């Protein structure tokens, strides 16, 4: 599957996603400047992304833990998610994400 | 996650956002005097799990340590980011929470009487003429030691700064990430942003003294303690404070003094809101901070070390835990523990150049057991 990722300068890159890995890991491994300081424990809100292109509604809803953690993220919007909580799968092929400001 | 206000606020939080009791400054030894430089064997920057275990390994070799940490309690990321989350890969402990691990480490190092300088940021490191180091902090503490250990993880925990254009110019004047004196806000129009315990606690504490108080959060739901949320909603119902589902988009004012902000709701509708002060409470994030100015060559914000001594390219300056890098490095707590043990052996030769290091096991050595207070 592919992830269409846009950085904070508006530059878009296509990243290959590995089934079962998180989108945060894919963004990080592709060298995008995503902090993810807790390493994927849903404990820091520094892997915050906006889900674009109508993909938000196709995602499994956030857990209570993710919703709570988003309270510690900056510039949260209706399409905000924590990318460490999103797992790559064929259903998400072509998902569009934009890095939130930090 | 406990937020910045707990460090210096008049109301010291002794719980984190998960609602559990955390260690605070009063749980640790507080230095007697900070007027003249403290002399010790090893100065440790960072009181996370690896800095704490370093105290143990150094202590077995009779080396005394002073620790500096910007947080007001030991534990680093374990207590700040995931106090309630389980850790499954500590050898011999099938499961322990972040907070639980720190409590056990504090118990384990108790015999060694390390001194903690908490709520202080290590911000200067110089080599003295006699070959020792002088580590200084933003609180004026100076520690002189033959060896310095950087166990700072990703750096310093600092308040998250909202991405609002030009916010830096208002910081410390009308934008505050912590409440130092509640009186500052008496008779003022105050705007609080956030949805965690700090945002809610300060909403409740400042409401009686502020001229007006408005809370904004991106949703009509909060991760704060339920009783705080209930109390806040009661004040809203009584018309004593206002709450909006909104984000702060822009600041308006002059010379650092706010006069108004632009708020935006989820429907992108924007409006102007007059205020004298803005208090954003979005928890803490990690920035490398002054370590960048310690004169060490950094590789992508990490300190390169050798894997026999975990010493940087500068003799006497060690780096252990997440802050270091070497071929094969894994950012695991257990790796940091190993690094602490080897660092201590190397630090011994720097601190006690004329003494022979006797390698002993805690299981069988009566002298080690005496140090541990178990015989």
Distance between the termini of chain B: 39 Å
Helix content of chain B: 10-25%
How many individual helices of chain A? 2
Instruction: Provide the CATH architecture of chain A.
Output: Roll
Sum up the overall morphology of chain A in one term: globular
User: Largest interface, with Cβ-Cβ < 8 Å?
Assistant: A-B, 24 and 26 residues
Mean of residue pLDDT of chain B? 91
Q: How much strand content do the residues of chain A show?
A: 15-25%
Q: Which sequence of strands runs across the widest sheet of chain A?
A: 2-1-5-3-4
Largest sheet of chain B: 5 strands, parallel
Output the radius of gyration of chain B: 23 Å
Q: Structural class of the helix and strand makeup of chain A? A: alpha+beta
Note down, in words, how this protein is organized:
The complex is a heterodimer of chains A (102) and B (375). The model of chain A has no long low-confidence stretch (mean pLDDT 95). The longest helix of chain A is centred in the N-terminal third of the chain and has 7 residues, at 23-29. Chain A contains 2 helices and 5 strands, in the order ββαβαββ. Chain A is of the alpha+beta class. In chain A, strands 2-1-5-3-4 form a 5-stranded mixed beta sheet. In chain A, a hairpin with a 5-residue loop joins strand 1 (2-6) and strand 2 (12-16). Chain A has one domain (2-99): Roll (Ubiquitin-like (UB roll)), CATH 3.10.20. The radius of gyration of chain A is 12 Å and the shape is globular. Chain B is α/β, with parallel strands linked by helices and 375 residues long. Chain B folds into 2 domains: 5-158 and 286-371, 3-Layer(bba) Sandwich (FAD/NAD(P)-binding domain), CATH 3.50.50; 167-281, FAD/NAD(P)-binding domain (3-Layer(bba) Sandwich). Chain B is 21% helix and 26% strand. Chain B is built from 8 helices and 23 strands. Chain B has helices spanning 5-8, 49-60, 77-80, 98-109, 197-206, 226-237, 333-351, 366-371, and strands at 38-39, 42-45, 65-69, 86-87, 96-97, 115-118, 122-127, 133-137, 142-145, 147-150, 156-159, 189-193, 212-217, 242-245, 247-254, 257-264, 270-274, 277-280, 284-287, 298-299, 302-304, 317-319, 324-325. In chain B, the strands form 7 sheets. A 5-stranded parallel beta sheet of chain B has the order 6-3-2-10-22, covered by helices on one side. A 4-stranded mixed beta sheet of chain B has the order 1-9-8-7, with no helix packed on it. In chain B, a hairpin with an 8-residue loop joins strand 4 (86-87) and strand 5 (96-97). In chain B, helix 2 (49-60) runs parallel beside helix 4, helix 2 (49-60) crosses helix 7 (333-351) and helix 5 packs across helix 6 (226-237). Chains A and B meet through helix 2 of A and loops of B.
